Structure formats: structure tokens, C-alpha cells
Amino acid sequence: MMQHLGRRYVRYFNSRYRRTGTLWEGRFKSWLIQPEQYLLACQRYIEMNPVKARMVEHPSQYHWSSYQAHAQGIDSVLWTPHQQYLNLGKNMTERQRNYKELFKKPLPDERILQSFNQGLALGNDRFRDEIERLTGVRQQLLKPGRKKRKE
Question: How many CA atoms lie within 13 A of 119 on its CB side?
């Protein structure tokens, strides 16, 4: 029943907004990140997705983005600032200015996407080693190809 309802809604939505394709791409995913190094980069990556998809020209224009809270101080009951964001300045004005400045720097897209696509923790080697030790789940990519035979 839910699958049928979902399909009907997608048809309605696509017709209403003159678009094609799925509304949701795949299942929900989450992965561990080392906040000191990657939290703000991941936030920027997520907040830039509507821009990359050409839905808006600037992240501030996307209604569902947390950019409005981070960079413009617009209150949201859905938003709780992370300590890494709070560390950007002594007051809200300073944090907002510094957050906007982050958007002028290039993102480490490749590392973020690789971790996400491979299901690996995002962080430095020490962080990933610790996650591997605690969970027993490999956090390093294997080199492609088969192992070489010993002669």
C-alpha cells in the first residue's frame, strides 16, 4: 500500500511541478565524521546541493536549507548550532560573517563523496583507525584488483 501511495504521489508531484524522475534517491544514509575537520565542510556540501542542482543560485534562496540559520541568523526550531559552528566567533554576528567566508573556499568534495559512497568514516587516519578498532568494521579502502600471488 505504501509503495503504491508513494508512486502515485511522485506522479502527482512530477506532473504538478513539470518535472521527471524520482523524488527520493535511494535509502537514508548516515556516516561518522570527525567534527573538528569535516563537520563544517559537510554542512557546506549539503547546503550547496540545491545550487549544484540548479534549483537556486545561492544557498540562502533554498527554503529548506540550514544556511539561513548559519549565515543569516534566521531562527528555526529545527536547528541547533553545533559546537564547531559556535567556535566560529564570539557572537552571532561574527559567526555568521565567518560562516559566509567559508563558502568562498573550495570544498573537499572528493573526500566527502568517497567516504559517503564507500560507507567509510570521514576523518584523518587516526580517527578512522579508532572507529575501526571500536566497531570492527574496516575503515580503509582496499587497493583495487586481486592480491598478487607470491611466486
Answer: 5
Q: C-alpha cell of 12?
A: 502527482
pTM above 0.85, yes or no: no
C-alpha cell at 80: 541547533
Q: What is the pLDDT of residues 32-89, one digit of tens each?
A: 999 998 999 999 999 999 999 999 999 999 998 999 999 999 988 888 999 999 999 9
The owner of cell 548516515 is 30
DSSP structure class, residue 122: B
Return the C-alpha cell found at 55: 534549483
Cα–Cα nearest to 48, from 65, 73, 35, 69: 65
Segment 115-148, tens digit of pLDDT: 888 888 999 989 999 999 999 988 887 777 776 7
- Of 50, 49, 113, 43, the C-alpha closest to 85 is 43
C-alpha cell at 74: 534566521
Taking the C-alpha atoms of residue 52 and residue 76, their distance in angstroms, rounded to an integer, is: 24
